[in-house]
């Protein structure tokens, strides 16, 4: 997932505006405007770091003369108490941007860390972990970027990337299968058909669908679906997959596992900032 400079700048500006860093009454009253400081951002646990350059942009927008003394690269696997970023600049400005910077770094590093743990569970399997569109409003591209840093792949970024028929589409149009039959050889973009039972799986195969998503099926039915599908279509499994059950799910010969939790439920990484007068 590529993030443009413009997107990073916009995010940094929005986060600073949200926290009204220019109206930090505490720092503005108690800290001298000329006081210089060195700030060290470090982790309190083992993590995969994601979002370093986004955080640097945030500090730069809030403090024009900020100096970067040292930094890690995104994707760095670090242990407890290892430094992530060391900066130097106006102490008042560093303090006012601290929470916005840590929030972003903790959130994205939490996503990349959970993603990395899930990928480690299936590293010997020939399958791919995918994210979903279950993301925080306004942060989708950044969260999907963190997923890629953790070692997984991105599913659809938005609704325009591929056709994906879900149960609610079937409810609103009882001629969905007829429309699938008409579009197979005409449409250039991928068609994904969600199936939550074996009858739907058989119908998908009859329609020559090449990408089938098995939604919220137990392991018994996933195995049965695999027998029906064979090598006739790519198979994605989704629904309630986590660190505890991913190994069992991956024992079936499938192609993809999609996990919404890596973006909507990843715990924030435990990251802190220490500051010193200089």
List the helices and strands and how they pair.
Elements (H helix, E strand, L loop, with lengths): L4 H15 L5 H6 L5 E8 L3 E2 L3 H11 L4 E5 L5 E2 L4 E8 H31 L6 E3 L9 H11 L12 E3 L1 H6 L3 H8 L7 E5 L2 H9 L4 E5 L3 H11 L4 E5 L7 H4 L6 E3 L2 H4 L6 E7 L1
Parallel strand pairs: 6-11, 7-8, 8-9, 9-10, 10-11
Antiparallel strand pairs: 1-5, 1-12, 2-4, 3-5
Helix pairs in contact: 1-3, 3-4, 4-5, 8-9
Give a verbal description of the structure.
This protein is 42% helix and 20% strand. The protein has 278 residues and is an alpha/beta fold. It folds into 2 domains: 121 residues, Aldehyde Oxidoreductase, domain 3, CATH 3.90.1170; 145 residues, Aldolase class I (TIM Barrel, Alpha-Beta Barrel), CATH 3.20.20. The strands form 3 sheets. The chain has a 6-stranded parallel sheet with strand order 6-11-10-9-8-7. α3 runs antiparallel to α4, α4 packs across α5 and α8 runs parallel beside α9. The longest helix is centred in the middle third of the chain and has 31 residues.
Task: Offer a quick outline of the entry.
This protein is 42% helix and 20% strand. With 278 residues, it is α/β, with parallel strands linked by helices.
